[in-house]
Amino acid sequence: MANSTMTADLPPLPEYTIKPLPDLLPFISDFWLSLILPHIAYWVMSAIFHVIDVYDLFPQYRLHTPVEITQRNLASRYEVARDVILEQFLQVGMSATLSLTEPRQMTGMEDYDVAVWATRIRLAQRSLPALLGLLGLNALSISKNMAASYPLLAGALAGGHYPFLTTPLDGTTGTHVPAFATWEIVLAKLIYWGAIPGIKLWFGIVFLDTWQYFWHRAMHVNKWMYTKWHARHHRLYVPYAYGALYNHPVEGFVLDTAGAGLAYKVSFMSPRMGLWFFVCSMMKTVDDHCGYALPWDPLQHITSNNAAYHDIHHQSWGIKHNFSQPFFTFWDRFLNTKYTGETKLKYDRNRKLAEAREKAVATKAE
Residue 17 — φ and ψ, nearest 5°? Predict the structure, then answer.
């Protein structure tokens, strides 16, 4: 498909031809990549933390001791891995459904879309003389005075009038047409490639955080939902990385799978952008359950919602607090559910109880 649009007093919009966007990787289609990449990220990150955990590489940054994992958790590692894999099969099905309902992502219109934004910027400049007039300034007079020294600024003050900016229409007729100023194109690119994707990503994050906060909190307030669904996740009093998605299948679908899918849809992300959104969400979820407060882990410093923050929610004394997940904590702050009490003594007590329990078991075995 080709297109060319021109208005007499505005720079013409470029022609474009759209075609399917090439796959991100040459050896796998974007469809299959979208199904497996989030889960590859999940297990790679989990494996890294598992190695750190098993070999006790950074004991100074542990939130819990190895003894607590064995003595306090009510689910075996096998049960956790089994239920996580089950949920991931459900997520693959959801991802496939989303991908199949999306039209093929196309490319070729990028320069045209940037030019459309540049046109909007040019049109917006037409209001400058009137706005400056409200302040008692004569924009046209100011523009004439600085035309020689600052022609681009003068053109903007004159309402986006740049008679000196032209470009050949084609290589044969010699006809010249208006052209955009460099700053207009740069600003248009910042809007198109930066601001718009950033707004979509931010909206998706806020939607997902909102969805998960209120569903998560409801599963604690409603006794039936807690005992039937959410209690399974809280069998891990001492979370570890690959236990992040250890949930009842219903909870996993409602909280994680549907939440992320809806966030992707309502924010109008492109399929390629959605892929990275799902991968980042998965990595953040794993990191929030890793059981370590690593000072060099960037995911634990982007926001205050990190492993230490979420770990409080997994403790019996913090279970009615810190519902926010996976990115920010604004709902906990706004609705006064952020835990603000003392933690060190409580963690020390849990640690000592676990050690005493292990000694009792060892003594009984003898």
Answer: -130, 120
Instruction: Render pLDDT for 167-181 as a digit per residue (tens, 0 to 9).
Output: 887 666 668 899 999
**Nearest Cα to Cα of residue 247 among 275, 215, 206, 272:** 215
pLDDT band per the 50, 70, 90 thresholds, residue 252: very high
Dist. CA 187–CA 152, nearest whole Å: 14
pLDDT digits (tens, 9 = 90+) for 114-124: 999 999 999 99
Residue 210 φ/ψ, nearest 5 degrees: -65, -45
Residue 7, pLDDT > 80, answer no
Residue 1 has pLDDT above 50, yes or no: no
Contacts of 21 (CB under 8 A, 6+ apart): 30, 104, 105, 106, 107, 272
Decide if 234 contacts 316 (C-beta within 8 A). Answer: no
